[in-house]
Amino acid sequence: MGKRRLTRPHDAKAKRGARSSWITWTVLGGLVLVIGGFVAYLMTQGPGQMARKGGVAPDFTLRLLNGQSVTLSSLRGHPVLINFWHST
Questions:
Q1: CA 71 centroid distance within chain
Q2: What is the DSSP string of 45-85?
Q3: Rounded to whole angstroms, how far apart are CA atoms 26 and 33?
Q4: Rg (CA), the chain
């Protein structure tokens, strides 16, 4: 008479595979919830101030090279040329 095994090898592999599958689906479900929540948050935020043709420009603040700040509303009544540029 041979030795009796305490566990059957194919059962252990099946349990390990089931546990691995469960963990994978749990992580994927969590990621879907987090990403969905973030998208819902972004969609519920109202639109920011938008510039419209012929309307008043949204107020913003810029820092000058000498460290001072200037706001667009402080220049009301004066002609303003805004040049947005980008370098790489």
A1: 29
A2: SPP-----TTSPPPP-EEE-TTS-EEEGGGGTTS-------
A3: 11
A4: 31
Strand pairing of 69-71 and 61-63?
antiparallel
Q: Kindly state the percentage of the chain with pLDDT values over 70.
A: 70
Q: What is the pLDDT of residues 7-37, one digit of tens each?
A: 555 566 666 667 788 889 999 999 999 999 9
Report pTM: 0.37
Query: Is the separation of the CB atoms in 61 and 70 below 8 Å?
Result: yes
Indicate the Cα dihedral angle 22, 23, 28, 32, nearest 10°.
90
